[in-house]
Design brief:
Elements: E1 7-16, E2 19-28, E3 36-40, H1 51-60, E4 64-68, H2 86-101, E5 111-116, H3 118-129, E6 135-139, H4 145-152, H5 154-158, H6 161-173, E7 179-180, H7 197-203, E8 215-216, H8 220-225, E9 239-244, H9 252-259, E10 265-270, H10 280-298
Parallel strand pairs: 3-4, 3-5, 5-6, 6-9, 9-10
Antiparallel strand pairs: 1-2, 2-4, 7-8
């Protein structure tokens, strides 16, 4: 019977732009030069919100893992706080890859990226820009800002216009940002207001979490025009898309259209909601499929068989 590798977790920081990202490095004990997967989260989320669960399971399978928090959020650096910049987050991914390539204890020729939700969109973009990567996983990915805006609804979108205007003025004057909720109840102005959005985010927060349910409103126009799914056709390495059939945040029909353009794409579909992916039976199904995919692509050393 095959057993899991014991795992050690290390607190890490790495430089990115004008500041630093905080993260965790998971190492499978007793494995020489393991492959590694880098994990990044969704809108305003921090690594404490179940990235640790995925990373630990990957490490138990013999794959080192780095789970990090973007600048401006959680315990990472960056000012102002709660600034969601797509350009800066993609730079954080580049910095995480550079950090991993400099680690002495891993095989830098076997690196994968893993992103969920908004980070799932980033994973597509990053994979298209880094052909040296061995594999990518894009989980319940944000692939099309326009499709997500339409899912939010025009009334809720229009109700965010005043706070957007205030934040743009604050930016010009060098003042503190005006904030908009990340998740709220249906019909309320927020980046996500599907029925499962607010309870979904709340369910992912451990005691003492660094998560704050707000971001600077200036991100709204850039989210609406961000369409990372278009980069899927440029992803040269194998990429696994894990898609929710009932996703209320990132509409699955558009995601599937993009996923099918990836030259070496694989698609797994699940009858579970966007926020169900992180816990319970759906988490177990996802992590099992992802370990199978990553093991096939990264070829980690097998755990001992007593």
């Amino acid at each position: 019977m095959t057993t899991a590798h014991p795992v050690t977790r290390h607190d890490i920081t790495f430089p990115s732009g004008d500041s630093t990202c905080a993260g965790w490095l998971y190492l499978p004990t007793g494995v020489t030069s393991p492959p590694v997967v880098i994990l990044g989260h969704g809108l305003g989320a921090t690594r404490e919100m179940r990235l640790d669960a995925f990373a630990e399971r990957f490490a138990q399978a013999g794959i080192a893992a780095v789970a990090f928090t973007y600048r401006h959020f959680g315990d990472s650096g960056g000012h102002p706080r709660q600034l969601l910049s797509i350009k800066r987050q993609l730079a954080d991914w580049d910095s995480a890859i550079a950090y991993v390539k400099a680690l002495p204890d891993i095989d830098r020729s076997r690196i994968a990226v893993w992103g969920s939700s908004f980070g799932g969109g980033h994973a597509i973009t990053v994979a298209s820009r880094h052909p040296e990567l061995r594999a990518a996983v894009s989980q319940c990915p944000f692939t099309d800002g326009l499709a997500s805006a339409l899912a939010l609804g025009p009334v809720a979108s229009l109700r965010m216009t005043p706070v957007l205007a205030r934040d743009m003025a604050a930016r010009l004057r060098g003042k503190a940002p005006a904030m908009v909720p990340i998740a709220s109840a249906p019909g309320s102005p927020a980046l996500m207001n599907a029925p499962d959005a607010l309870p979904g985010y709340q369910a992912l927060q451990p005691p003492g979490t660094t998560f704050r349910n707000e971001v600077a409103a200036r991100v709204i126009p850039t989210i609406a025009t961000y369409r990372p799914g278009r980069a899927a056709k440029k992803v040269a390495m194998p990429i696994l898309f894990c898609v929710s059939n009932t996703d209320s945040v990132t509409p699955p029909a558009q995601t599937l259209r993009y996923a099918r353009t990836a030259p070496r794409g694989e698609i797994k579909r699940y009858d579970a909601g966007h926020f169900d992916f992180y816990t319970g039976e759906t988490f177990e199904a996802l992590v099992r499929d992802q370990i199978e995919f990553l093991t096939r692509q990264l070829r980690p050393a097998p755990a001992s068989t007593p």
